[in-house]
Amino acid sequence: MSSRPADEQRMRDLAQLRRVKDRIDREYAQPLDVEALARDAHMSAGHLSRQFRAAYGESPYSYLMTRRIERAMALLQRGDMSVTEVCFAVGCSSLGTFSTRFTELVGMPPSAYRRDEAGATEGIPSCVAKQVTRPVRNKEAQVTTPN
Known about the structure:
Layout: H1 4-27, H2 34-40, H3 45-56, H4 60-78, H5 83-89, H6 95-106, H7 110-117, H8 126-132
C-alpha cells in the first residue's frame, strides 16, 4: 500500500525535473551549470543530479552537452560556420571540451563531421533528419580510426 503524500511528492519532484529538462532544452546555448539549475529548482546540486539521473538516465550536465552537440551537428552540416564558431554558438566555452565530447557522442571529430556531413540532409524532411542525425549518448558511438 503506497502512501498518498509520498506519491504526491514524487509527482511534484517529477514535474520539477521536467521543468529543469525543459529549461536545458530552451537555454542550451546559455551558460548553465548544475548549481544554477538546482538553485532555481530549490534543490541541492547533488540531489538534482541524482534525481535527474534516476528519471532520465543521465546527469543534467550530460543531457546539456547532448543538446549542445545535437545543435552543433545541425550547424556543422550547414557548412557556413567554423568549428570554433559552432562551439561558442552552442554555449561551450572550451573548444577542447567541445571537441572531446563531440567525438565521444558522434564518433568523429567536429572538423571531420563538418567536412563529411555538409549538406548530407538536404532534401530530407527535418523530422527525419533530426532522428537520423541524433547523437548517441553515453559514449556508445564507435570512434573511427584511419587505416
